Amino acid sequence: MAQYQVYEMPSSLDALEGHELPSSRTSSETYLDSPPAYEAVAGQLAQEAAEVRDDGRITVDLNSRLARTLSKFMPKCPIYSAGEDRRGEKPAQEPKPISWNVKLNIVVQVVGSRGDVQPFIALGNELQKHGHRVRLATHNTFRNFVESHGLEFYPIGGDPEELMAYMVKNPGLIPSMKSLRQGDIQQKRAMVAQMLTGCWESCVEPDPISGIPFVADAIIANPPSFGHVHCAQALGIPVHLMFTMPWTNTRAFPHPLANLKNGGKDSKLGNYTSYSVVEWLTWQGLGDVINNWRETMDLEPVSSMDGPNLAAQLKVPFTYCWSPALVPKPIDWAPHVDVCGFFFREAPNYTPPPELDAFLRAGERPVYIGFGSIVIDDPIKMSNVIIEAVHKSGVRAIISRGWSKLDGPAMDNIYYLGDCPHEWLFQHVAAVVHHGGAGTTACGLLNGRPTTIVPFFGDQPFWGNMVAARRAGPKPIPHKTLNSQNLSEAISLCLTPEANAAAKDIASSMQQESGVRTAVQSFHDNLPFEKLSCDILVDQPASWAYKKKGKSLKLSKLAVEILRTNHKFDTKKLELYEPRPIHITTKYYDPVSGSTAAFIGWNIDVVEAAAGMVTKPYKEYKVGRTTTSTKSVTSETSSLRTRSSSSSTEVESLTTVSGITSPTSSRFSSSRKSVDVSSPPGFGCTAARMAGASAKSFGDLNVKGFKGLLVDIPLATAEGLRNVPALYGDKIRDHGTVTDWKSGAMAGGKAFMYGMGEGLTDIFVEPYKGGKKEGVVGVAKGVGKGTVTLLTKTGYGMLGLVAYPGQGIAKSIRTAVKSRTRKVIANVRHEEGQYLLKGPIGREINHAQVTAVFDHFMAAEGAAPRT
Fold first, then answer.
1. Is 851 in a helix, a strand, or coil?
2. Run of H or E including 826
3. 258 in helix, strand or coil?
4. What is the distance of C-alpha 472 from the center of its chain?
5. CB 633 within 8 A of CB 677
6. Domain Erythromycin biosynthesis protein CIII-like C-terminal: where (predicted)?
7. Is the distance from CB of 580 to CB of 88 less than 8 angstroms?
8. Environment class of residue 5 by beta-carbon count within 10 Å: exposed (0-12), middle (13-18) or buried (19+)?
9. C-beta separation of 203 from 235 below 8 A
10. How far is 851 from 649, CA to CA, in rounded Å?
């Protein structure tokens, strides 16, 4: 792989001109300064740090307190060499498979327009070639589009046309004042909530038409789907993000949605900070929606400190779907972030209608003008501007009607186009004018067509600037400033020999790439291969863990059903297996800010729970009034779906799976979340629900009150004390992840041992080390450092001895109480295993051989490694 260079944004991008971040530091590499309390700054976001302009751009004030605060979290800029393992931080002993032979159920979650969905269709088809079962989960309106390419489809809800209209005014779902006044926000938040529910269902629900069971083994998603990491956490499976727009912090260029202002000397740090500011703004608008949804999956809420940068914190693999010929990978992007090239589907077989064919043959190559799925406020005005610009430039034109239904009078030099694949059409035009979607941009450049971009929102201005930087077209023309004059000039520039040569040069580079195949390789490279496969049926993913007498086996859904059928194991020893567990932990940089943040969070929780004793009964009262005459609520995207009668074969119960009991001959619908509000007379009346809501809030008040005082605040203080050595460059002890009372007790023991041991010895060791290195001055520094560690490490040891076991006990209690989602996962995995057992795959496998291998593992000394 070639060494990547730092990509600097062209000077034509207004977001960079003359804007640098003010800083009292000597270098942008200073980091890990002690920050203020985290939760305290969250409410300042919209007011102080940024402003959403009427043109849909976000003005990020780098001189705001929030921007300066976020800049303190910016790590030292890493430089990654080209030879590093692209899989990132993985065990050195883990082998890279020569060929991928584990057949996965992959759900691809996509939110956006048809242009956003299309690249993932190409990806899905390529994944199918490797034997994977691929389900594309997106908006209902794209069902035919997805299924026509041989992929499974799952509807997640949401109206893409309505979403695109909103995004024109509010990029990234961050509302402008105009949208707030018009009352659009609640409607869009409700749409996001619906799509989040749909994303989870796409991971565990059977096919809505055929009823064939499906449980995801891995997730691929674009970031605007929002549910990806959370679904992966609930299932304990790998997740991989793919996008056409920069979403990872870099010093090379700012966030595509951000205009930077009040810059100082450090523009690169400003670029890096802009990503965090935009993420924080988005989280402020949707964080509560996401946390409410997480609660339905028995997941703990994510704090406003962790929510905005969750993917980066968890090092979720990220693949960017653009050509490095346009935007090379910045050197401060880690190995788990790839730039692979644009995604192109196989060109469809297309025969143009006679009218289009005749128009193309009637004269010189026309200019294509179209805005695809963009919903324009005034399509008549836009149509008139385009027609006038065509006349001024003296060209022939094909105007795509698109979702805005652009139209005009019949003319010899203009053809109004309906649906037509760009792959075919762009081979027959001289230049293209469009909104700047990544897919349309890529298709035009692949065919060597000079490009004019009229951006509306999102990554469109970014691509417009990239095209202009390569001289393959003019600077982008924002849609609100578009007129017949500047459009005519842009068309004329595209027809110059210089623009044509530049476009041909880009096309030559892009034609050497294979974006889809490279993306699939990146996806495979980032999977935990050794942890993912079944120990018996090695070409199937592991879904269960069987543990007995100190031995552990990873088993696939089918292997479990075969062994159960042959009565080979005790189902009480069977547990859900998580090949890639996700643990979200808040990092506290010092004890003061950590304990303060926890105290503020505790106060908020207690106040909300206390207020809920009044507000939640009132909400139930309002719901009762609006649903008095309602018998039941059903929809295509509800979590309880009607199963197809053709596949409604009953399955036997698992009896017990790690304490999970399932009724015999059940379709497991009893554990699914139902939205049926019908009830027999005298049950579930409004008054009873109001009393229940009040009682629940009272219970929450007690639980959150005691947990905050006994666990959260001591834990935050202990974590802050543990991380103090990082402030002066010392290493931090890792006590392991706390997941239950056992790991909590181990972490507490390690904290006490390391904290007390090192704290009491550092007072002598540090002066000695300092004196050896710097003489008397070093001794003085060592005394100071030793004194600090004496206080912080011993404090960490003593407090950790109580805090970490308390955290573990709290997690164990929560796991025991919040078990509904785990029951659902166990049931649907069992259901799919039964389906596989009765299908062709189950009949082809030698059951006797499976049981023999199982017996061998159980009999052999330490043959099966603990997972």
1. helix
2. helix 820-838
3. strand
4. 32
5. yes
6. 412-510
7. no
8. exposed
9. yes
10. 25
> Which has the minimum average pLDDT: 236-240, 475-479, 787-791?
787-791
CA–CA separation, 271 and 36 (whole Å): 22
Q: Give pLDDT, residue 620.
A: 78
Greatest extent of the chain over all pairs of C-alpha atoms, in Å: 91
pLDDT at residue 584 greater than cutoff 60: yes
What angle separates helix 484-494 from helix 379-393, to the nearest 10 degrees?
Answer: 50
Residues 586 and 580: their CA atoms lie apart, in Å, by 19
Confidence of residue 99 (pLDDT cuts 50, 70, 90): low
Share of the chain above pLDDT 90, in %: 43
DSSP 3-state assignment of 30? coil
Look up the CATH number of domain 354-518: 3.40.50.2000
Q: Evaluate whether 558 touches 841 at the Cβ level (below 8 Å).
A: yes
The candidate with the shortest Cα–Cα distance to 530, out of 87, 133, 106, 93, is 93
pLDDT in tens, 145-182: 999 999 999 999 988 877 766 665 555 445 554 554 45
**What's CA 654's distance to the chain center, in Å?**
33
Degrees to nearest 5, angle at CA 720 with 714 and 721: 90
**For 208-239, b where at least 16 C-beta lie within 10 A, e where not — what string?**
beebebbbbbbbbbbbbbbbbbbbbbbbebbb
Check if the beta carbon of residue 259 is closer than 8 Å to that of residue 13: no
Q: What is the DSSP string of 426-445?
A: GGG-SEEEE---HHHHHHHH
**Rounded CA separation 278/285 (Å):** 11
Please state the length of the chain: 867
Which residues, including other chains, have CB under 8 Å from residue 708's CB and lie 6 or more apart?
A: 598, 601, 602, 605, 606
Instruction: Give, for 137, the enclosing helix (H) or strand (E).
Output: strand 133-138
What is the per-residue DSSP string for 44-112? TIIIIIEEE-TTS-EEEETTSHHHHHHHTTPPP-----TTS-TT-S--TTPPPPSS-----EEEEE--S
Query: What's the one-letter identity of residue 611?
Result: A
pLDDT of 642 higher than 70: no
484: which residues sit within 8 A by CB, 6+ positions away? 385, 388, 389, 392
CA 733, CA 722: separation in Å to the nearest integer? 8
For residue 86, what are the CA distances in angstroms to 223, 295, 325, 501, 618? 21, 35, 19, 34, 54
CATH number for region 71-89+98-345: 3.40.50.2000
pLDDT at 672: 38
Alpha carbon separation from 670 to 287, 649, 674, 761 (Å, rounded): 30, 16, 8, 58
| Nearest CA among 452, 467, 331 for reference residue 12 | 467
Angle, nearest 10°, between helix axes 713-723 and 741-774? 30
Q: Read off the pLDDT of each residue in 622-649 and give the average, rounded to a whole number.
A: 47
- CA–CA separation, 555 and 553 (whole Å): 6
Three-state SS for 169-230 is HCHHHCCCHHHHHHCHHHHHHHHHHHHHHHHHHHHHCCCCCCCCCCCCCEEEECHHHCCHHH
For the chain, how are helix, strand and coil distributed in percent, rounded to 5? 50, 10, 40
Q: Which of 354, 325, 360 is nearest to 340 (CA)?
A: 325
pTM of this prediction exceeds 0.90? no
For the chain, give every domain's residue range.
71-89+98-345, 354-518
* Amino acid letter, residue 736: G
Answer whether 71-89+98-345 and 354-518 agree in fold. yes
Q: What are phi and psi of 169, to 5 degrees?
A: -95, -20
Q: Facing residues of 109 across strands? A: 137, 221
Measured distance CA(693)–CA(696) in Å, rounded = 5
**What Å distances lie between residue 449 and 365, 444, 503, CA to CA?**
11, 5, 6
Q: Which residues contact 635 (CB under 8 A, 6 or more apart)?
A: 675
